[in-house]
Write the structure tokens for this entry.
Amino acid sequence: MSDHQDNRETGFASGEKSTELAAAPGHLGRWDFLRYGAAAGLGAIALLNSQPAKATQVNRVVTAQPFAVSPIPGVLDLYINEGYLRMVDRSLVYHRGFGDRPSNLNDFSPSLAVTPKVFTADGRLVESRSYPLGAPLPPHGTPQPFGPDPANPGQYYIRRNYWASYYPQRTIIAEVGGRIRIRIQNRLSKPHQFVLHGAGPDRSDVGTGSIDPGGTALLELDTPAPGTYIYADPTNAPVERVLGLFGVLLVVHPEHQWAIGEDLASFERQWLWICHDVDSVWAGIEASGGTVDPRITKAVPRFFLLNGRSGFESLGITTDDALNLASEEETLISGYPRQLDVRQFGEGSELGTVRGGQLVRMVNPGIVFHQMHFHGNHLWTVGRNNYNWPRRNGFVDPEGHVVIQQWEDVVELEPMDRKDCIIPIKRPPDAINPVWDARTTDWEYPMHCHAEPSQTAAGGLYPGGLVAHWTLKAPIKGAAL
Ligand SMILES: [Cu+2]
């Protein structure tokens, strides 16, 4: 059963598995086959080889939950499911989530997050962990440089408009000019809803309205302006969101796929960082049929995740190669050293002259204030909540935040915040020449949250929580000047 245990919502392997099976209506995890197969007096081996339709019948007798809906071309089906996820300390915690196949509470591999999907401008719905579609995949997530930068020894030119980026579970991408069409089935016993925050006219919220247990609703809208949006269930806010009913919509202009927008910051590749807090006490109340009142049961998150992983799993240093690779591709920023002039993000215009950084989109659907602190490089913050910050005539907003593009050592993320930052991936200013010139290995720098509780998981060892690192790649042999 070890493959099941690793097959969490966030696992690379589970994403691939659900890709393959999403088309089979009524798909069940292998665990269901074994459980319900045994209950029905059928041999487990026979069931493993049986057709999904047979298994669905078995399952329906046991749980009486609705089937998968019949697919409609171009429509993304999401299922409000529940299940248990394994946390970094191996405890199981009850979750809800927007999955892309129906799954049940006792499913060993519940579908609680959507495997990344793309709504294209021409009306297609494509499943893809990488975007732009068809762009070359950066090996281990690391864009390879174009060649050495003669003016800056040990540094490189980048390729503009070339490399794809990988995205974590829960990501939905939509291209401007198309339509977003999502059908939600509520498979749980209480009403739920699906809301795209700020994606409606004049940045209003747009959603399905309340969906009764067993009910289905279709949400259709024109793709909003380029940017980063949170989708969530606002019911009993923030409880359902904290239980896992959230994700991110990334809107891209198809003619500006390597920039935040026209004439805005460009990047070599981008990273989407989704923060998430897990409160086991809230989860326990809801799992046993209760309803959390946040005024009575104060939130005390016990686990802190980045792109669905904590601690050593987020850092990609487990014994599971597939999980480590997924973390490298989706979360652990990496690149070859290059110069970045923020007065001109994509300095140079011809291949072999381009310098520039990478974009980190930090999103906080959780309830904890995060303070994302990077070692090695500062980040140039270009905007917040789909407002592009000015480069001059900055101001202080009514909440006391400074609004102007700026270098930041710590990037603050309030609940529901989305921040766009450029990480230069440059030679650290404190690396003196003898040290820089002697470099032969990758240099890794920590990223951790300065809100200390989010560094720990279950009160355990530091660091067990929301952590990552970023890598300044070693010189390429033969390419150093
Ligand atoms: Cu630090």
Q: What stands out?
A: The longest helix spans residues 52-63.
